Amino acid sequence: MPSPAAPPAAAATASRFSWSEGTLARLWPPAVTFVVAVVAWQAMITAFAIPVYVLPAPADIWLAFANNPVPLLGHAGITLFEAIAGFLLGSLLGAVLGTVFAYFPVIARGFLPYIIAANTIPVVAVAPIIIIWFGHGLGSKVAVTTFLSFFPLALNMMKGLQSYDRTIMDVFHVAAANGPQRFFKMRLPSALPYVFVGLKLNVTFSVIGAIVAEFVQADKGLGFVIMTSYRTLAMPRLWAAMVMSALIGIVFFALIAAIERLALPWHSSHQDQA
Amino acid sequence: MAEADARGAMPSPAESLVSIAGVNLVYGLRGGAPVQALRDIDLAVAEGSFVSLIGPSGCGKSTLLRVIGDLLAPTAGTVGIAGRVPREARLKREIGFVFQEAALLEWRRIRDNIALPLELRGTPRAERLAKADALIRLVGLDGFQDAWPRQLSGGMRQRAAIARALSTDPRILLLDEPFGALDQITRDRLNMELARIHEITGVTVILVTHSIREAVLLSDRIVVMTPRPGRISRILDVDLPRPRSLGSRDDGRFDELVRIGNHELEKGYRDA
Prior knowledge:
heterodimer; A: mainly alpha; MetI-like fold; 84% helix; globular; B: alpha/beta; Rossmann fold; three-stranded antiparallel β-sheet; 10 helices
């Protein structure tokens, strides 16, 4: 009388195996690409005697970092702090505003056109204004980052909270659920996939925001390193700073993706197939 | 005070669990041509009985079910469930509702989906999980309590939805075409599960369906409805012996009842 179907325990085990195999399968092609590219790059520099200010060799970039790593790491730490602080502040602000928008459509209609308009302003144009307002310290860099990483979550939070299934709403109605129960047990879990889309966008934007703010005005941070290296044509150092800023973004993104995997076990299996 | 109101609004004989009197429902009163979804519905459903609502699309059968389940309010008339207005019956968790889609929460395992109404009521965790496990056995989902809804077939998802609707031990189970999207074999199987659950639990069932054969197979009474405006055209008593099985369809009386039901249904289509 029960329907014939694969026992779920076996299915779960199978998917766990295919996950680890899938991770390997996903990781080796980019790793091979990386090694081949670096070797080819290094060989090309040597073969064609390309000047270092045009394109430094991978070894030069590595030495620019390895010969004096502590100051660069210090600058990276500053940028990382600005990115994380702005990410957290912006995401929190975005989540709250997105929730308000989802529950009060009139407020959303009143504010959204201006928020979308503000979102289209290039951050390089806004950064000087924010730095005038918030001063020359870390606060202004965090403010620029907050400004950038607030829109994606606000919009995705709103969209996510509105994306619940109407029949599930009926189920909650029949079960006499109260407002907080509807929010925490239905609308918020329904919104989580959207929330993570917003958070992943914010990760990228928060690193961009921190570095752009440092371009405009700073005496520390990777953006500062890039600007000063550019002025003195210290290209290997500039490249090293660029690689470090990319690494910050990648590690940060991977962290959010890992949290997503933990928070949405019902959803991540679905993503693996895609 | 609300209690007194409810009793005042209950005009029916004592043995009826559900009493519907003079129910009308009109859509679009403000602007646009008003549509009368339900006209002058009177219906009494005896406690423990199995009643089907059948009729062509637009006859208001789902609307009537949603009125009983307090998902819609009638424009006029009264509905009583065990002496209460639907809203109170709902707040007392006396109504179980199964929809056409299983509407399971994808982020919860099957056991936690089935325990959801108890969780919303504030039942302690151990108690509600024990109840969920008992229901999992009742609907034949043994071994799937820790599965994600995504891993289940359509028929199994509806089994879970039925178990969830039964979790608060409701006095009435409302089913809105729950098997409409399933293939015939799965549908037959779930019909028999439903008949068995009805017999074991004694819960009163109102089933909305398109299928006269399904209605005859399962019901004590079949309420045939016609559209524009939605009203009851005939109530058929099904005198097939219980317990029912798929073999009940071999009974000559089964074919006769299907014939009568089809004839009555065709009238509704002719008028439409």
